[in-house]
């Protein structure tokens, strides 16, 4: 059983667990072990199971951090302040509710995830390994970077995600395709078309547009020629970085933090083990572990016995080696046994949650203690960050209160030693600098700020910067003079007329082709162009314009030997004239059996996804969901 789980881990879970699971988790959050009974502490409730506000805040914070990292990886092309906090919070809560519905559905369906499976997945995940071996320190670093508060929280995440995956696979892995569905898809996918195409360009845009037409268009579309609504803003900005020069750190605080840091350094122990799973017969399992212990006591090599007898096939290939471990990596019984051993000593048989185990301590690695001087800069920075955090929070709250109470921004500026900056005029869509932040522009054009003349609420631009804004001047939309827009209107009307003329000409040519009054060659000669012949073109052809290809495959099949004609507008201007000569279905080009397997897999996959989506929708419809 463990071998099967390990094989599964190596084939997909090991690749997914740190990637997809983290991404999914970033969008959904995790469920905490402890829950609050008070409704005031709940963000939502799903079938009586609460989602606490603490869980929601942790998930929102993690999602925000994930988005910030993605923005940084994009080279700073997007301002992190563009993240809409209200939308983010709503989206995360919806995802957590959806996740809770699925987990409850999976449990009701009888799906379960064992502790042994979670252990095996963690041990076999490459991101948690150093030199091919599980490394506890590496594990801690990775999950910390993921924003996980503890190992138990990560295990809980893995358990939930695997539970949902099992539930989904229950539908997707059991779906199938009928022969009719496979044949229909094969016919469509393998269909080919023979057609000729003539690209008719739009030509020169020299249509005659009168002044009367320009004036009529201007009058009928007056709203299109208004100046944008704009504002001039007074702003105050408070940045966390501005406080670093205002704080000092004493030597005693540095020493205390240093002692706390080195006190957290943990001893690492390299362990090997022999595992015998209990199953339905605990007595037989105990007899097997006793046999292994007796062989080792008689002088046999631990690694050899592990290779022959351990049920953990993943580690048995390496003589039972588990790599370096710190306390808390496994359950309490395992830890108690391992950390009571001397070097090269083997424990007595231990009953753990995994089964019966023999544990051998193969190496000790004492923590490396850095000197105070080597850590001084880091410690000073940490202490400064703590002080700056307090001051920044206090100043932010003071700015929010003063801005709420003051009639303008002069009083808050004077109280906090800030400088009022004026920006604009800027439109609703924003501008440069502070005006590029959607939150700033949303606040500036809110009813209270724009129409009532109030200062804005405190705006969190990013994790380290806040601001308040006030409208200094409101520039309402005005009609642009005809003289300013005449040329634009003239060009627009001329282009429209040219398009209409081209469309009429294309339809005229199509009618002549259909009536046999004009040959394909004559049309090409008349246009000074050549017909392009395409034979046995498939839907996946990438050498033909995709818009043209979609239109060609949407045309009806020709009736007899007479081609089907059509014209299609080109995005670049002008038209395509198409003569569809023939359509070949799948049976004409290959046997149905030759393409059955991939099409069957595709249809079954689509059916499985639809089945799971339907089950998910049913669970959602039947769930009792309360948002607070």
TrEMBL record:
<keyword id="KW-0175">Coiled coil</keyword>
<keyword id="KW-0997">Cell inner membrane</keyword>
<keyword id="KW-0697">Rotamase</keyword>
<dbReference type="GO" id="GO:0003755">
    <property type="term" value="F:peptidyl-prolyl cis-trans isomerase activity"/>
</dbReference>
<dbReference type="Pfam" id="PF00639">
    <property type="entry name" value="Rotamase"/>
</dbReference>
<keyword id="KW-0812">Transmembrane</keyword>
<dbReference type="InterPro" id="IPR000297">
    <property type="entry name" value="PPIase_PpiC"/>
</dbReference>
<dbReference type="Pfam" id="PF13624">
    <property type="entry name" value="SurA_N_3"/>
</dbReference>
<feature type="domain" description="PpiC">
    <location>
        <begin position="266"/>
        <end position="363"/>
    </location>
</feature>
<keyword id="KW-0143">Chaperone</keyword>
<dbReference type="InterPro" id="IPR027304">
    <property type="entry name" value="Trigger_fact/SurA_dom_sf"/>
</dbReference>
<dbReference type="InterPro" id="IPR046357">
    <property type="entry name" value="PPIase_dom_sf"/>
</dbReference>
<keyword id="KW-0413">Isomerase</keyword>
<dbReference type="GO" id="GO:0005886">
    <property type="term" value="C:plasma membrane"/>
</dbReference>
<keyword id="KW-1133">Transmembrane helix</keyword>
<keyword id="KW-1003">Cell membrane</keyword>
<feature type="transmembrane region" description="Helical">
    <location>
        <begin position="12"/>
        <end position="30"/>
    </location>
</feature>
<comment type="similarity">
    <text>Belongs to the PpiD chaperone family.</text>
</comment>
<dbReference type="InterPro" id="IPR023058">
    <property type="entry name" value="PPIase_PpiC_CS"/>
</dbReference>
<dbReference type="InterPro" id="IPR052029">
    <property type="entry name" value="PpiD_chaperone"/>
</dbReference>
<feature type="coiled-coil region">
    <location>
        <begin position="496"/>
        <end position="523"/>
    </location>
</feature>
<protein>
    <recommendedName>
        <fullName>Periplasmic chaperone PpiD</fullName>
    </recommendedName>
</protein>
<keyword id="KW-0472">Membrane</keyword>
């Amino acid at each position: 059983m463990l071998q099967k789980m390990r094989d599964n881990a190596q084939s997909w879970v090991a690749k997914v667990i740190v990637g997809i699971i983290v991404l999914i988790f970033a969008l959904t959050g995790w469920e905490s072990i402890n829950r609050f009974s008070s409704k005031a502490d709940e963000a939502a409730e799903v079938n009586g199971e609460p989602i606490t506000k603490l869980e929601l805040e942790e998930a929102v914070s993690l999602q925000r951090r994930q988005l910030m990292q993605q923005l940084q990886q994009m080279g700073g092309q997007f301002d992190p302040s563009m993240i809409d906090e209200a939308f983010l919070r709503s989206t995360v809560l919806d995802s957590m509710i959806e996740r809770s519905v699925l987990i409850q559905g999976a449990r009701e369906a009888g799906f379960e995830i064992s502790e042994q499976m979670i252990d095996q997945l963690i041990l076999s995940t490459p991101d948690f390994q150093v030199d091919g071996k599980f490394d506890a320190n590496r594990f801690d670093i990775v999950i910390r970077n993921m924003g996980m508060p503890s190992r138990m929280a990560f295990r809980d995440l893995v358990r939930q995600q695997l539970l949902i995956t099992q539930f989904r696979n229950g539908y997707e892995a059991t779906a199938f395709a009928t022969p009719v569905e496979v044949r229909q898809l094969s016919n469509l996918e393998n269909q080919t078309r023979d057609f000729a195409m003539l690209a008719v360009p739009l030509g020169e845009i020299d249509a005659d547009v009168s002044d009367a037409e320009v004036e009529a268009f201007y009058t009928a579309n007056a709203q299109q020629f208004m100046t944008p609504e704009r504002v001039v803003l007074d702003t105050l900005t408070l940045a966390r970085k501005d406080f670093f020069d205002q704080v000092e750190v004493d030597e005693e605080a540095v020493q205390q933090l240093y002692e706390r840091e080195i006190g957290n350094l943990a001893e690492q122990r390299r362990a090997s083990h022999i595992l015998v799973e209990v199953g339905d017969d605990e007595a037989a399992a105990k007899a097997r572990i006793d046999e292994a212990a007796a062989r080792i006591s008689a002088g046999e090599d631990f690694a050899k016995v592990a290779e022959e007898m351990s049920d953990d096939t993943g580690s048995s290939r390496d003589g039972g080696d588990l790599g370096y471990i710190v306390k808390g990596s496994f359950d309490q019984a395992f830890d108690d046994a391992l950390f009571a051993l001397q070097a090269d000593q083997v424990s007595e048989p231990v009953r753990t949650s995994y089964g019966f185990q023999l544990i051998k301590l193969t190496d000790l690695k004492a923590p490396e203690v850095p000197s105070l001087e080597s850590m001084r800069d880091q410690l000073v920075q940490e202490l400064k960050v703590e002080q700056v955090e307090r001051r920044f929070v206090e100043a932010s709250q003071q700015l929010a209160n003063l801005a709420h109470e003051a009639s303008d921004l002069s009083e808050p500026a004077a109280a906090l030693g800030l400088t009022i900056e004026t920006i604009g005029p800027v439109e609703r869509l924003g501008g440069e600098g502070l005006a590029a932040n959607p939150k700033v522009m949303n606040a500036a054009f809110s009813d209270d700020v724009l129409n009532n003349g109030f200062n804005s609420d405190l705006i969190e631009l990013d994790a380290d910067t806040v601001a308040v804004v006030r409208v200094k001047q409101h520039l309402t939309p005005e009609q642009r003079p005809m003289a300013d827009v005449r040329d634009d209107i003239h060009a627009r009307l001329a282009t429209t007329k040219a398009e209409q003329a081209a469309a009429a000409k294309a339809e005229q040519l199509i009618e002549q082709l259909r009536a046999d009054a004009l040959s394909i060659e004559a049309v090409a000669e008349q246009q000074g162009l050549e017909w392009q012949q395409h034979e046995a073109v498939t839907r996946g052809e990438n050498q033909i314009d995709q818009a043209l290809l979609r239109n060609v495959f949407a045309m009806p099949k020709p009736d007899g030997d007479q081609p089907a004609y059509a014209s299609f507008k080109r995005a670049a201007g002008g038209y395509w004239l198409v003569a569809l000569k023939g359509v070949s279905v799948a049976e004409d080009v290959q046997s149905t059996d030759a393409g059955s397997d991939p099409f069957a897999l595709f249809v079954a996959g689509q059916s499985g996804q639809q089945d799971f989506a339907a089950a998910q929708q049913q669970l959602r419809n039947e769930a009792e969901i309360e948002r607070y």
